[in-house]
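Write out this protein's structure.
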Amino acid sequence: MDWYDTFQNTKINYWLIAFEFSVGPLLYLYVKSVTTSGFKFVKAHIYHFIPQIIYVIYKLWLIGYDANQPGFSDTQNGVMMEAIEMQYVNPFYVLFTNVQMILYLAFTVQIFVIYRSKIKQFYSNTFKLELNWLATFLAIYILLFIYSLVQIIVNISIFEMSWTQKWWFHFVSCLAIIYIGVKGYFTKTDALKDLEFNAVSVSPTSKDSAPDQTFEEEIQKLNDYISEQKPYLNPEMSLKLLADGINLSSSQLSEVINNGFDINFNDFINKYRVEEIKQALQNGDHKSLSLVAIAFDCGFNSKATFNRVFKKVAGMSPTEYLKIL
């Protein structure tokens, strides 16, 4: 904004201490705190901010050193700013912060993907736990980061971009940060604090293999309980609740469902809900109730989840199934 031309002896370059070293760690720790039950910030987490602490100390030393040099008040940049900061530190800073951000974004996406996978092993209705707003933010922020890298490449190898051309990146970045701030503030995360991921989750076996016969007794017990009690009608049904119902530990039940039925807990329960909906439609319940009302009566708590799961299990949408009937 022509600042440097108007104020030739400004010391703005000294006091604009960037905190890009902290953005990656803060993003990572925030997502980890939301998706990890009982998460607490401990002293070990401070290690993530060591580069930022070193950088702040360096900047304070820089202005302290240059301020004591002759003629400092008459110039825009002092001796060390010209010789060290602009020549070596700033290029290194740009390279280091971008590499750091790539790593932290990778770690952040990894823990989020693991979280989304885990909730399907422990909860039958995951709509309120999926944190879609957080997934949206991560997607936007990653795209913005890629755009910033393109800006850097263009600025170095093609032409030097003006501040007005760079402005849009900062503007959209601000909107993205405001978005996660508002959504995070108004999203009730109390339920997330009590998520139980302690049970040992076993990956399903190959689709070509038959159910594991070593779980024959547990499978029979589970089938009998589901047939008699219909626990899938409870929208809050979880692995722990079902395990308590058949007197098994959560880890045992997880192993039975994953290896005995070759399916995760979420798909296991929702399969029964879809069958219950089919039966209700065959009985003509849709003549007095809407499809969504029937879905909610059968254990779903989200219209979007109901439509997605029904199509996945039945191979067609609820409306298409109703037309066939």
